[in-house]
Amino acid sequence: MTRINHMLLGAHMSIAGGIDKAIERGISLSCTTIQLFTKNSNQWKGKTLKADEVDRFIALRKKSGISPIIAHDSYLINLASGNHELRESSIKALTGEMERCRKLEIQYIVMHPGAHLGTGEDIGINNIVSSLNFILKETDGWGIDIVLESTAGQGTSIGYRLEHLGRIIAGVEEKERIKVCLDTCHLFAAGYDISTPEGYEKVLKEFDRIVGIDRLVCIHLNDSKKGLGSHVDRHEHIGKGCIGKGVFKLLMKDKRFDAIPKIIETPKGEDMKEDRINLALLRKMAGQPSS
Ligand code: MN
Ligand code: MN
Ligand code: ZN
Question: Quick one: which H or E segment has residue 222?
Fold first, then answer.
């Protein structure tokens, strides 16, 4: 008998209609893991989570077996900002999102390190470190880990070099609560050529040396609309962009990542038919039935 291993594969799901709807959408696409925003990603404040909404979410997650569920922070949050007010708002907002995660029993919140907006990378990284140290103290004992995502390096954003992530972790006091998410589109756009088997291995070796492979808790699977080193963050369907299918085949078969949730953030409409196609392709690459 061939045993199909439990592959952790899913998509970023909309919470339109209620936070539990994201799980319903995940179930309808046979996801074993999903990512979501815990509130509108373009606003500072979210509606207070109602107790019955939280109960429905937790019950449905248990019934579905979808685990882990990963939160992604809102796009307004910028812990690197040299503007004191913006950084204060960002710290408050991220803490607020972690409070939502705590209610929803979500362990991981993925975040973009931030953009320095002109002050330079060194000051930006220092701002991120001091903000994280403050937030980690505030949220001590909540059981939530902060997951730094590697970025494409668009504009003045930090995190497009693995060294940035390494430096942030080095500065954080409570290191065991800092994890990392790699995004294939971001890595490629940042200049890490993962499109060939040799490049893939080389980048992973570098990642292990600078950050540590044991910190990896999530992989975002996105092809890239723009080229190697373009520093443009534009996601494309799996195998249809500048990276091509190769890296996704390698990742889906890589035993080191069997237990790591892999999540697509590719363009889609309301009926999610694009997600179905991308997920089916990835399952096929892993040698599993496509639905
Ligand atoms: Mn992201
Ligand atoms: Mn991503
Ligand atoms: Zn992106």
Answer: none
